[in-house]
């Protein structure tokens, strides 16, 4: 029979050999597992190319690199065409000087050129150079005597206007200065002058209460009224010179064929 020490040595040798064999087998299996892991990651990279950026193409395949570069150059060129086809409608910026389309004035339609008599052409330079000018502008058959810088309160509230809008008075019967007066029959052609006003706002009068009764009745009715008026300021009053009228296509005719006349005050 073997002694206990001999048996213990034999068992220790078997344990060490078994442990070494396990470690060696594990080490031999590591490269295989690593290869399997790399293969699995490569398959994931091929399955999801849009999530991971593509690797650089080796220099050994110049044809593939050139084809990829051509495709990359051709693809952006097709993007603007799609963008232009699906472009949104143009939008005008909301600036301080922006005027909506529905607020733009309708341009007048003239079938004949402006006719200026010889006497008017000779006196017009005196009127244009002598400032300031005054104008008798007509609005709803009411004349308003105005000069540049005057404030005007209309006896009514003008609809569809707001503070900041610029309007033009194109109907006038008299335009003059200190020594000269131009009169129309009944109105002066609007191509000979420019009168622009700016809307300042709306003014309101105090509340009015009026009592009304009927005969042989004790009932008294209280009528309340509070009128509103539009405030304006004359921004520009200009009489066009003879050179400007001729550039716009005016014609000089004999006396008696043109309506407006200029008179000198005595």
TrEMBL record:
Pfam families: Ribosomal_L21p
InterPro entries recorded: bL21-like, bL21-like_sf
Top-level taxonomic group: Eukaryota
CC annotations in GO: mitochondrial large ribosomal subunit
Biased composition (Polar residues): 38-47
Region feature Disordered, mapped onto this chain: 38-104
Molecular function GO labels: structural constituent of ribosome
Biased composition regions of type Low complexity, renumbered to the chain: 57-87
Family the entry assigns: Belongs to the bacterial ribosomal protein bL21 family.
PANTHER family: 50S RIBOSOMAL PROTEIN L21 (PTHR21349), LARGE RIBOSOMAL SUBUNIT PROTEIN BL21M (PTHR21349:SF0)
Protein name: Large ribosomal subunit protein bL21m
Origin species: Rasamsonia emersonii (strain ATCC 16479 / CBS 393.64 / IMI 116815)
């Amino acid at each position: 029979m073997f002694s206990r020490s001999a048996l213990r040595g034999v068992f220790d040798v078997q344990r060490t050999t078994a442990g070494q064999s396990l470690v060696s087998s594990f080490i031999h299996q590591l490269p295989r597992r690593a290869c399997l892991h790399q293969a699995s990651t490569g398959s994931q990279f091929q399955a999801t190319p849009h999530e991971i950026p593509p690797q650089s193409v080796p220099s050994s395949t110049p044809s593939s690199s050139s084809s990829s570069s051509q495709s990359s150059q051709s693809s952006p060129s097709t993007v603007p065409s799609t963008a232009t086809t699906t472009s949104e409608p143009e939008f005008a910026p909301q600036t301080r000087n922006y005027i909506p389309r529905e607020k733009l004035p309708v341009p007048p339609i003239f079938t004949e050129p402006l006719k200026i008599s010889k006497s008017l052409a000779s006196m017009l330079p005196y009127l244009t150079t002598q400032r300031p000018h005054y104008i008798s502008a007509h609005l709803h058959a009411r004349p308003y005597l105005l000069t540049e810088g005057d404030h005007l309160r209309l006896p009514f509230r003008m609809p569809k206007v707001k503070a900041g809008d610029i309007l033009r008075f194109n109907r006038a019967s008299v335009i003059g200065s200190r020594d000269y007066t131009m009169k129309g029959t009944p109105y002066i052609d609007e191509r000979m002058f420019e009168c622009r006003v700016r809307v300042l706002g709306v003014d309101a009068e105090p509340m009015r209460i009026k009592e009304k009764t009927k005969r042989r009745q004790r009932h008294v009715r209280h009528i309340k009224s509070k009128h509103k008026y539009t405030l304006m300021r004359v921004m520009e009053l200009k009489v066009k010179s003879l050179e400007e009228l001729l550039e716009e296509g005016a014609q000089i005719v004999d006396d008696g064929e043109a309506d407006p006349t200029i008179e000198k005050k005595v």
